[in-house]
Design brief:
The protein is mainly alpha-helical. The protein contains seven helices and no strands. The longest helix is centred in the middle third of the chain and has 44 residues. The model has no long low-confidence stretch (mean pLDDT 88).
């Protein structure tokens, strides 16, 4: 039963994730955390961090991670197939249709219609992760602010944007600072 639920949940992620991995994050949150309770928001934040460091798309890495957490290796396989299957079918059909009807303005209109929705989904994902990173239990309150996270984020932003440091070095330094803060 859980394998079927994993397949259906990540089939939804795969079929509704227009715009790439960041756009899939709100759907993964809805399916894996809110609806099925397979992982927590804290675990999802860790998943997002790990998926940025590993090769492969975020949605596929996320489906594999959540599937493994919910039902072991069979869950990882089923969730990954559920996530990939809709995209494989849709891309194959769209490629055929695009080659056949690429000169129609309907195609341009359809693609232009999807852009704002993708931007909104990416923004929702960023805000959700920011709230979890900066506030304890995602409670927006002056007393719930994780000051060390805000400081580390600000320093990393300056190092990346103003000083143009290598992102890998900045990521390693951020991780090291978190280890030091937790040891203190």
């Amino acid at each position: 039963m859980i394998l079927w639920r994993l397949f259906i949940a990540f089939f939804k992620v795969g079929i509704l994730s227009f715009g790439g991995g960041y756009a899939s994050m709100p759907i993964i949150i809805e399916q894996a955390i809110t609806h099925n309770h397979w992982i927590t928001m804290s675990t999802f934040t860790d998943l997002f961090t790990i998926s940025q460091m590993t090769p492969g798309p975020i949605a596929i890495n996320g489906s594999t991670f959540v599937g493994e957490a919910a039902a072991g290796m069979p869950g990882a396989i089923v969730a990954t197939i559920g996530c990939v299957l809709p995209s494989a079918v849709i891309v194959s059909v769209l490629a055929y249709l695009y080659v056949r009807y690429k000169d129609l303005t309907v195609m341009d209109n359809a693609l232009a219609f999807l852009r704002p929705a993708v931007v909104a989904m990416i923004a929702i994902s960023g805000i959700t992760i920011l709230l979890d990173a900066f506030f304890k239990n995602s409670t927006i309150s002056f007393y719930a602010i994780k000051y060390h996270a805000v400081i580390v984020f600000t320093i990393c932003l300056v190092l990346l944007r103003k000083l143009k440091w290598n992102p890998v070095i900045v990521m390693l330094l951020a991780g090291l600072s978190e280890v030091i803060i937790n040891l203190i």
